[in-house]
UniProtKB/TrEMBL annotation:
Gene: gatC
InterPro entries per record: Asp/Glu-ADT_sf_sub_c, GatC
Source organism: Mycobacterium aquaticum
The protein's name in its UniProt record: Aspartyl/glutamyl-tRNA(Asn/Gln) amidotransferase subunit C
Top-level EC class: ligase
Gene3D superfamilies, A to Z: Glu-tRNAGln amidotransferase C subunit, N-terminal domain
Entry keyword Transferase: yes
GO terms, biological process: glutaminyl-tRNAGln biosynthesis via transamidation; regulation of translational fidelity; translation
Catalyzed reactions per annotation: L-glutamyl-tRNA(Gln) + L-glutamine + ATP + H2O = L-glutaminyl-tRNA(Gln) + L-glutamate + ADP + phosphate + H(+); L-aspartyl-tRNA(Asn) + L-glutamine + ATP + H2O = L-asparaginyl-tRNA(Asn) + L-glutamate + ADP + phosphate + 2 H(+)
UniProt subunit comment: Heterotrimer of A, B and C subunits.
E.C. code: 6.3.5.-
Keyword annotations: ATP-binding, Ligase, Nucleotide-binding, Protein biosynthesis, Transferase
Lineage: Bacteria, Bacillati, Actinomycetota, Actinomycetes, Mycobacteriales
């Protein structure tokens, strides 16, 4: 028995703003029905007594620690800039913004 109808596929396509042809609706209905059948078979497996598995990747927050290192001063950074104003990089105005 089919678990998903062509009308349900059309409704889902409408919600997802997808324009599907009649052939695509028929094709996707069959494909989604096959997927749901496989999921149903997996859900029916008896897992009584099977212990849940854990994440095999035990590493958590594997980022490096924050370390203060020497860097450019404001003047050194601005020295290479094509244009600077008031201690900041000056860039061309975009999108017609007003000052």
């Amino acid at each position: 028995m089919s678990q998903i109808s062509r009308d349900e596929v059309a409704h889902l396509a409408h919600l997802a703003r997808l324009a599907l042809t009649d052939d695509e609706l028929d094709s996707f209905a069959g494909q989604l029905d096959a997927i749901l059948a496989h999921v149903g078979r997996i859900q029916s497996v008896d897992v009584t007594g099977v212990e849940a598995t854990d994440n095999p990747l035990k590493d958590v927050n594997v980022t490096r620690p924050d370390v203060v290192e020497p860097c450019l001063t404001q003047d050194e950074a601005l020295a290479a800039a094509p244009k600077a104003e008031d201690g900041r990089f000056a860039v061309p105005r975009i999108l017609g913004e007003e000052e």
